[in-house]
Amino acid sequence: MSVVVGPALVRRAARRGAAWLPAGVRVRALRRIGPALGRRLGVGGAEIGLVSMVVVVEPADEQRLADCLDSLRAQWHALLDVLVCPVGEVRLDGPVPDPRFRVLPAQPTWYDAANAGAARAGGAYLGLVRACDTLPPHAVTDLAGTLARSGSDVAVGHLAQRGHPEAWLERTQRSAHGEPGTGLSPADRVALVGDLALGNKMVRLDFWRSAGLRLDAGDDWLTAPAWSRALARGPRIDVVPAPVVRYAHDHGHRPFGASPSPLPELPAWRQKARLVEDAVAGTPLARGWLLHVLDVALPRFLLDAERADAAQWRQLVELTASYRDRDEAVLRDARAESRALTWLTVQGRRAELESLAAELADLGEDLPTRRVGDHLVADWSSLGGDLPDEVTRLTGDETRLLATVQRTFVDGPELVADLFVRVRLLDLAVGDPTISAHLADGTPLPVVERADKVANRWAQTRFQSAAEGSVRVRLPLPAAAGTALTLTLRTDGFERQGLVTVTPPPPPDPGGPGLVIEAVDLEGDDLVVRTNGDADGLRLVGHGLDLAGRPGASGEQRFDTNADLFGRPVRLPSGRYTLRHPDGVRTAARLRDALPVEVVGRWHRLRVLRDGRGSPALHLGPPIRDDEIGAYGQEQLRRAYADTRAPTRPDTFYFDSYAGRSATDSPLAIFTELIAQRPGIRALWGVQDHGQWVPDGARPVLLRSREWYDALASARVLVTNTELEEWYVNRPDQLVLQTFHGYPSKAMGELQWRARQLPPSRVRTMRARSVDTWDLILTPTPEMTRHYREQYGYTGPAHEHGYPRDDALTGGDAAGVRQATRARLGIRDDQTAVLYAPTWRDHLATRPRGAALSDHLDVPRAADLLGDGYVLLLRGHRFHSVPPADASDGSSARVLDVTGHPEVNDLVLASDVAVLDYSSLRFDYAQTGKPMVFLVPDLDSYSGALRGFLFPFEESAPGPFVATTVEVVEQLRDVDGLRSGWADRLAEFNAAYNPWQDGKAAQRVVDRLRGML
User: Fold this and answer.
1) What is the CATH number of the domain that holds 412?
2) What domain count does the chain have?
3) What's the CATH number where 988 sits?
4) 609, 641: one domain
5) Beta partners for residue 701, in sequence order
6) Could you tell me if 62 and 145 lie in one domain?
């Protein structure tokens, strides 16, 4: 069956309104009309000219093609020659209304399509991109610009991974490109040829053709031997220190967190590796390739040894031994982790290899170390020190000196630079480190130590402190732009040197119009801005807010940090804010020299930063203290928490919901009932920041604060609706009530872990942070309890008589809540309120608990078609990143974004009909008796690889199934008919799935809980 990519998909990325031209005429015309299309200058002002971008469209890319072409249309460099190259049965219908875009005939394979596009390219530079990937706006300018400036043959940028990143790919690029502050020259960086990916490179077209470059069946987008043949010719290569492509694993269809085994790829990888070795044999690149194999490629397979069958294990041992014996000097340059994995494999110590691999998976990029004489060694707990010193000893590259400039300012005849300095994997809290600095000519510079715990946020290392490496260095003026300093860090016989470049601050402000900001501070409930004059008209803007201040002392403007969250009192949410004034805003020299400035108040941590435009940038975050900042501070708090031996407090109860994002769901209903029965309890509620609402009677506790760790250690009862942290310790006298956060219907536990292809060690970790912590679980019915027992292997007690979260939907206050919510949202009595609440898609996730909003419903179009008699309430999933504003989008009917509303039950009651997909909200909404429409165009894929269900979705969705926006609108035009037509089915549904939802579920849970204490 052919995949037809209609003109609407391509038209989204081509809105310049031009007709098609024959290819030759089109390319010549593009060259002539370059200035009209927006010719851009590259790095250093070099003119770029025409750039050809080949877009390969495979059948799996159909849904993402429009986003890819959108990203090309949005490039800062607009003089593009975009060749859309379909593969196999993909067929692109209709012309593309943009002179820069043309569609070539389909080819049988992706590499044939790429080769065909390269053959038809007409620009001076050539780039390749898959249709499932996207480019940041600066990508073409960065890549082609550096080639235009330098005259090099190839430009290489960073390949950013969408979704859950693969560690081996990140390490490949770090070793090949170098890292900021390493001092590696471009020649050193390209000596390592592991980065053979296609999508993060651009070449001169004449080099591509003169080198006879062609892609073939031995290539893929992440390891292309064709590139090794080109590199062996000795091209000039530029390294661009910026992301130039967003790479989507498995064409963007891999669920977030999935860990497919690389072992099935081993035979194909061996074949590709031989091709690369043949291409680079006898060249300076041979050593770089061997190091890549030993340090990145082989460890990728060894880390998954627990899933190897007997034949695969023999292959791993044989292959590892063959590479290890080729050059011992190269192996010594590999990371200690790689040497340990290699040594254990060749020794045949599989059990220890698997234990180390599991520990490394938990550690990520962190590594505990210890000093042995004048060097550092890895200190993995799983091995107990049972490895030779030459295996665990860290290399010079692993322990290099790193530095960053925090601020610079001029003080009389000197340039002052505040630096953060550290040695990778060296704990500066141990010993007495000293830091010296000198210029390139050997001139020593005065250094003053300034221990600053904020440096630990920069370092982001769990086991090593960087606070003791904060120093102030003074340079004589005039200091040239980009002055290089040599830094030396010594401690107890250990010494490292490195470079840092110090750039003088911008020239003094010449003055002129604009309000001058002299200081920004936190005082009580206020954010205080002090200026040089009349501050009337100064506004604080950010996070969807535009706030006016009130006058304070002379030249002072005060902004109240109290805020309103849909009628609930909170504080200003965390985020970036700016100051605006009708006359403009400038930063006083004294403040500018002191930036960045950090202030910790009662409700926020304020960071005042430079924004490059004269006015200070403000960032409000939770008021985490300095010793709690960063991975190191958190590790210290976790160790103290784990060592706590004090008994819990019988009167202390801890609550959280959605990982501190809001106080809602069943934990809120249980809290309310518990306070009514036991008003004297000490109730603590975990929140991400003070922008989250907490009910009266509960004390907010900031996640990641010392008080939060103390709360988890001292609470007699913990009530949560999400998984606890992996480091959580379930104490003998502590009770954890897991309420979950929705009716069980989608794959979970074993089903979800298998769908994500997690290795056994990771499944054990998931069990440890879930089922192993539960003392009591909450389910709606005994039938649903069965699923938890089957999927999690849970054998403990279960309370299975309804969800407290739903008591409000059938309680006596429901009518009043409906009326109050509609009034607050501005919904008229004569308007039909439609609640649109799509769930998240695992494959659209970009981070834990974060995913893009699915776009199956064209919300503005639906609003226009429905007219003023309807209001659409857009409720993104809690994992969605949706703007918090709740204003009309300009269509004829109102669209209100209520994603930030703290209570979904209020929205359920305020609405008259719901448009849902696979969300468990359907089980809650059904209790109101109001109709639902199910927009499920991706039902087949969601039921399969994406997520799946515990029982057939079709049996648990009492409403019509539709696939398009127009079909949704057709159903919504007759809500009364929809209600009557599905009333009987809805009653049957409630009888089957909601028999215990009688408004008293919370009372039953609290009674059960008190009986267990």
Assistant:
1) 2.60.40
2) 6
3) 3.40.50.12580
4) no
5) 686
6) yes
Please give the structure tokens belonging to residue 883. 């703007």
Give the domain-ending residue among 250, 285, 317: 250
Same domain? 157 vs 80: yes
Which of helix, strand or coil describes residue 523?
A: strand
How far apart CA 621 and CA 619 sit, in angstroms, is 6
End position of a domain, from candidates 250, 283, 311: 250
| CATH number of the domain bearing residue 735 | 3.40.50.11820
Quick check: 287 and 330 in contact, CB under 8 A? yes
Tell me: do 923 and 848 sit in the same domain: yes
Calpha distance 398→7 (Å, rounded): 51
Query: Does residue 384 fall inside a structural domain?
Result: no
Q: 349: which residues sit within 8 A by CB, 6+ positions away?
A: none
CA distance 1004 to 996: 11
The H or E element spanning position 404 is: strand 401-411
* Residue 466 CA to its chain's centroid (Å): 25
Report if residue 380 sits inside a domain.
Answer: no
Task: With 0.85 as the threshold, say if the pTM is over it.
Answer: yes
Interatomic CA distance for residues 652 and 672, integer angstroms: 15
- Cβ contact 681:653 at 8 Å: yes
Q: How far apart are CA 662 and CA 643, in angstroms?
A: 30
Dihedral sign computed on CA atoms, order 907, 913, 916, 921: positive
Cα–Cα nearest to 527, from 597, 583, 586: 597
Do 903 and 791 fall within a single domain? no
The pLDDT tens digits of the residues spanning 134-175 come to 999 999 999 999 999 999 999 999 999 987 889 999 888 887
Are 795 and 823 found together in one domain? no
The structure tokens listed for 540 are 């604080």
Pairwise CA distance, residues 913 & 834, whole Å: 5
Using the structure block, give the residue that is written with the tokens 């340059």. 333
Q: DSSP string covering 112-162, please? A: HHHHHHHHH--SSEEEEEETT-B--TTHHHHHHHHHHHH--SEEEEEEEEE
Phi, psi of 668 (to 5 degrees): -65, -45
| Amino acid occupying residue 283 | T
Sign of CA dihedral 903, 909, 912, 916: positive
State the amino acid at position 364 in one-letter form: G
**Span of 54-68, 142-156, 179-193, 852-866 with lowest mean pLDDT:** 179-193
Same domain, 637 and 599: no
Within 8 A by CB and 6+ apart from 612, the residues are: none
The b/e string for 250-272 (b: 16+ C-beta within 10 A; e otherwise) is: ebbbbbbbbbbebbeebeebeeb
Is residue 759 within 8 A of residue 357, CB to CB? The reply is no
- The number of CA neighbours under 13 Å toward the Cβ of 649 is 14
Residue 710 inside a domain? The answer is yes
DSSP state of 234: -
Contact 495, 398 (CB under 8 A): no
Contacts of 299 (CB under 8 A, 6+ apart): 168, 337, 338, 341, 342
Instruction: Tell me the per-residue pLDDT of 525-566, one tens digit each, with 9 for 90 and over.
Output: 999 999 998 899 999 999 889 999 999 888 999 999 999 999
How many CB atoms sit inside 10 A of residue 504's CB? 18
CA pair distance 353, 365, nearest whole angstrom: 18
Q: Are the C-beta atoms of 323 and 293 separated by less than 8 Å?
A: yes
CB 935 within 8 A of CB 915: yes
d(CA 469, CA 538): 39
Packing angle between helix 266-280 and helix 310-324, nearest 10 degrees?
A: 20
Residue 60's domain comprises 3-250
* 858 occurs within a structural domain: yes
- Note the pLDDT tens digit of each residue in 965-1000: 999 999 999 999 999 999 999 999 999 999 999 999
Same domain, 870 and 730: no
CATH assignment of the domain containing 109? 3.90.550.10
Of the CA atoms within 13 Å of residue 375, those in its CB half-sphere come to 13
Instruction: Round to whole Å and give the CA distance between 353 and 364.
Output: 16
Token pair listed for 736? 């954890």
